[in-house]
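Q: My collaborator sent me two sequences in one message, no labels, and asked for predicted structures for both. Can we handle them in order? The first one she listed is below.
A: Yes, handling them in the order given. First sequence, followed by its structure tokens:
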Amino acid sequence: MQATFPPHSDRQRRRVRLSAAALALTLVGGTGAWLARDPTPDWPDYVDIGQVNQLTSTWPPTPGDTAGTGSYTWSCGRNEIGHRNSANVVVTPGSTGPVHHTHEYVGNTSTGADSTDASLAAAGTTCDNDDRSTYYWPVLRLAPPDGGQDGQHGAIQTPAAVTLTLYGSPVGPVVAPPGGLRAAVGDALAVTDGGRHAAATWTCADSPRRRTDRYPRCGPGQRVLRVFDFPSCWDGRRTDSRDHREHLVPTAADGHCPPRTFPVPQLQVIVAYDLPTGRRFLVDAFADQNHSPRTDHAFALNLMPAPVLAEAVSCLNAGRACRG
């Protein structure tokens, strides 16, 4: 799962395409996140989407003879049930987490501080293909109307649409990932740790090739999009690692996996929002991260039933576009 661009070179290898299904969901409706006549346009964390350069590089690269060029898209809703909490079952299992950093979930309906693989596998799901996996990211809030940036108590914005897609590999077939595989993308501490893992990708529904690590000011009627492109090169042994990253890493710029890793389906999650015109928005962040858009991140824990996953892998390796 990969995707993005400047200014961070590690992002230039990530996927820039949006599936037809994703575009269909993300383009619909919306009151518009921003008007050009913003009263205070000088906030450094915001940028007019028209000022963001379009991507010129192509991803994926020209596929090889055995490439898995297919896709598999399915729906897990948009958190209509209001499943949110401050736990992080991937990074800090067993802990409730800081109250000022709230995650939003789709998929598994039971994900919380005390979740285990077994409890999750036995729980319900919002996915239409019986996928019991959990997918989550920090909530998005409206900034205070007084122009301050303490958005900790701002109104949480429920997504207008969430699209999940698995992609194949441009260099060969993919293998099914194991149950319980943990995946992480982005860097919740990007402001203070140098941003080595930063992968924040923000854009607007009508400008998917203009991507930025700042909050985008979109035109009237255009949805704000958060794009999470997960790593897709598995070490073949572990479902987790000390930093929750070493066991599942990104591809190289040419689409190849590093030595001693194997290509698995690349997960892309697109979260779309209809936001009030003229209002700023902020991602929930740790106290010392100042709600920076660069701290955007997401997690996944794979518990997709084996028959469903086998169907998805078959679609990817056969070059078919499938829906779950």
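Q: And the one she listed second?
A: Here it is, processed independently of the first:
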Amino acid sequence: QADMYHGADYYFVGQHPGYAFFTCVPFGMTAQELVNWYYHGGGHEFHDELGQIFGLKSFLGGNTGAQAGGWFHKEITGPEDFNGLKFRMPGLGGKALGKLGASVQNLPGGEVYQALSSGAIDGTEWIGPWADEKAGFQEITKIYYTSGFHEPGAGLSLATNREVFESLTPSQQKIVEIAAGEGHQWNLAQFLSNNSAALSRLQSAGVKTLEFPDAVWDAFGKASDEVHQENMGDEIYKRIYDSYMASMRSSAAWLKLSDGAYTKQRDRVLG
């Protein structure tokens, strides 16, 4: 048995669907919104509540930032293009694509390149330009959707076996907590820096960066809501969802008027 792991909790939705919120859910929080909810809106307490069920003590320990929509062999022109499409996507985002008729695959990372290359899958999401370039997907297809509905700010968790954590001294426990927080900040900056450089290299190599049409986004939204509604019978899931959405709406109200308005004007003025 391992004493600690660092990874994406949405891989554990089979144990409890509420774990998805601590990575990301479709049409969910950006990295900044997530850390606000986690530390100031009750998110950490919900994470701990789930951890008590499964014998874990968890902390937010990283974030990839916004993830890309994915790589496709053919361009997506409408929601109907997902019908029958074999696509790799984990978490609740994958369940939403299933609502559109996609055959959703949850392949381990080591199998994705070969599956995309052989045609066993028609497309895949991975992370973003930096990780995707390292995976080599640009060698297989040049069609890359750079904005995804599924993970606008994917959190990573640092979790320990609860008994092991409780055996530590208070000072040692605080060290783990602080290390997770520092790792979160470092990881987020690392992804932003490397994604920017990798995107430039991918575009120079002929990769075509695209955005999904509005009709596809609308279909993503409807399917995502259906997935959430199917989980509302779980009392813990509903409480987490209600808290998460209330925090997101509150954060978004200010961010739209501050960051959103500023970046719009910055782009207009500076070009």
